[in-house]
Amino acid sequence: MKKLVVLTGAGISAESGIKTFRDADGLWESHDIMEVASFSGFIKNPELVLDFYNKRRKQLFEVQPNLAHDILTQLESYFEVFIITQNIDDLHERSGSTNVIHLHGELLKARNIKDPNSIIEWKNNINLGDVDSKNIQLRPHIVWFGEEVPEMEKAIKIVEQADYLLVVGTSLQVYPAAGLINYVSEDVLVYYIDPKPVEINDLDNPIKIIPLSATKGMKIVSEELKRLK
């Protein structure tokens, strides 16, 4: 089976009711990004940061995968599908996708504040005083600004092997994730679904831009991909 590599961002989860990463004013849920998405912000005000992600986690249990997630799952019958997501939700997995890489971490996991590899499953609130088996304070398993993206090398290798590349619901503005498209082979067809697509000037690949929402765009692209397989 040919390899379909999919890069997804906040736009695919937005239709399930999860807010996109930044509001128009550059804030995230009325917070300065660095207050709630950096280790320095955590050290400065751990209660604020933990509460912020506790609310995001609670919201996650109130939403469901949408049609765009479901179509990606269905495409596994036609392609070897690899999803590389910037999202920290589990909607791809809940929909049934089997190969998902989370570049920016996962909301339903935690790790201690000293060891980025001390990852454990965690579906409850994280509060000050919650520790792991080594008695070290827990934090959300989220890649904050200034931290390494541990799955990046794995993601690059997958993109390099793509027969088709599909970009859904991402502004292609957040690095290093946005740079992944530059690793695709030059002859690979690239689909880009976003209601407000940005210009992609540094690729020589054939690109099909679908300026629609994730659900509407996936309906179109899915049918075309099935014909190409």
Report what the structure shows.
Helix content is 29%, strand content 19%. By secondary structure, the protein is α/β, with parallel strands linked by helices. It has one domain (3-190, 201-228): Rossmann fold (3-Layer(aba) Sandwich). It has a six-stranded parallel beta sheet with strand order 3-2-1-7-8-9, with helices on both faces. Strand 4 (105-112) and strand 5 form a beta hairpin. Helix 5 (67-74) packs parallel to helix 8 (214-228).
Question: Helix proportion of residues, in percent?
Answer: 25-40%
What is the N-to-C order of secondary-structure elements (H for helix, E for strand)?
EHHHHHEHEEEEHEEEH
Treating each run of at least 4 consecutive H or I residues as one helix, how many helices? 8
- Can you tell me the CATH superfamily? TPP-binding domain
- The value of Rg in angstroms is 18 Å
Largest beta sheet: strand ordering: 3-2-1-7-8-9
What is the straight-line distance between the termini?
A: 8 Å
